[in-house]
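Per your request, structure below.
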């Protein structure tokens, strides 16, 4: 294997305010629902709004790493963060990233790390919190994976990502249950930040079903009527170039990109006013006239 680069990082300008240091685990037990797509594009949207963002790839298959155009074997990354307690600042890649976004890359050896991974991750995050406003943890679809558990155990927030399909929504129910278990066992501070419905075909019944589902599950804290990402060819097109929607002139102002901006704005609000957001009772379930169809 070729030797991996240490990342030389220019020191950030001191900020007038302390970084927010909010840690968000992005997940769903179901694979292929768009966890990684949402993670990297939300990171880019938050960065575009001027926040400092770190993406930590906790998936041994390196989803976020590939999506951001990084060769997993070229850099030290989460393997070193969790194995050797390397400093996140030394591992963060900035070159070629979306504005204000850094990445700690993953490679497949991440799947065979042993020891108390949750503790190692928490230690790494203590340092990263002081440098970044948002730290997004991209997780593998396997709930039994030690890095999935570690992400849930170390995060402040859980962001659900799902597609409006029966199996994905079922994965959501399982993820919600796992969040409850982790809260009770190791991380009482873990709170639901919200749910992003991804790849919604706005011309099909899926949209109606999605809205009905959200009405019935207010505890998932959806992002309003427009808090879903439409099905679009663009996320995949830019991913193939190792980019986010925000890094290409062709996609920068597309409707799908704007949705990420809108959701990022709401995420920022929720994280900054954590107490206020958590104190708001989820909207009451309104009776539907003809009984909306549900996925669950
Ligand atoms: N809004 C969207 N519209 C159309 N395609 C999308 C959308 N979001 C994601 N995709 C595509 O769906 C596929 C799966 O996305 P992604 O890799 O983000 O899912 P994932 O949940 O992270 O998968 P895994 O569980 O394997 O980690 C990719 O090809 C991606 O480009
Ligand atoms: Mg993924």
């Amino acid at each position: 294997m070729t030797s991996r680069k240490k990342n030389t990082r220019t020191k950030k300008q001191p900020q007038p305010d302390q970084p927010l240091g909010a840690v968000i685990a992005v997940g769903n037990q179901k694979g292929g629902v768009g966890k990684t797509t949402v993670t990297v594009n939300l990171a880019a949207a938050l960065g575009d709004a001027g926040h400092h963002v770190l993406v930590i790839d906790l998936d041994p298959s390196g989803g976020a790493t590939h999506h951001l155009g990084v060769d997993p074997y070229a850099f030290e990354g989460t393997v070193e963060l969790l194995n050797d307690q390397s400093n996140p600042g030394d591992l963060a890649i900035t070159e070629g990233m979306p504005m204000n976004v850094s990445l700690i890359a993953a490679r497949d050896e991440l799947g065979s790390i042993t020891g108390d991974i949750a503790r190692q991750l928490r230690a790494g995050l203590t340092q990263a919190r002081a440098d970044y406003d948002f730290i997004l943890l991209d997780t593998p679809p396997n709930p039994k994976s030690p890095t999935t558990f570690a992400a849930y155990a170390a995060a402040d927030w859980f962001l659900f990502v799902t597609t409006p399909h029966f199996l994905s929504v079922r994965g959501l129910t399982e993820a919600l249950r796992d969040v409850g278990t982790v809260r009770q066992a190791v991380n009482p501070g873990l709170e639901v930040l919200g749910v992003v419905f991804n790849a919604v075909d706005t011309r099909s019944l899926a949209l109606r079903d999605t809205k009905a589902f959200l009405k019935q599950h207010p505890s998932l804290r959806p992002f309003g009527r427009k808090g879903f990402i439409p099905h679009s060819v663009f996320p995949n097109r830019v991913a193939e170039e190792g980019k986010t929607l925000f890094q290409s002139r062709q996609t920068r102002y597309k409707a799908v990109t704007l949705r990420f901006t809108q959701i990022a704005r709401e995420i920022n609000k929720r994280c900054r006013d954590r107490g206020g957001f958590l104190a708001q009772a989820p909207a009451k379930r309104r009776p539907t006239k003809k009984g909306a169809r549900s996925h669950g």
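The beta strands are 22-27, 53-57, 101-104, 134-138, 157-162, 191-200, 228-230.

Regards,
D.
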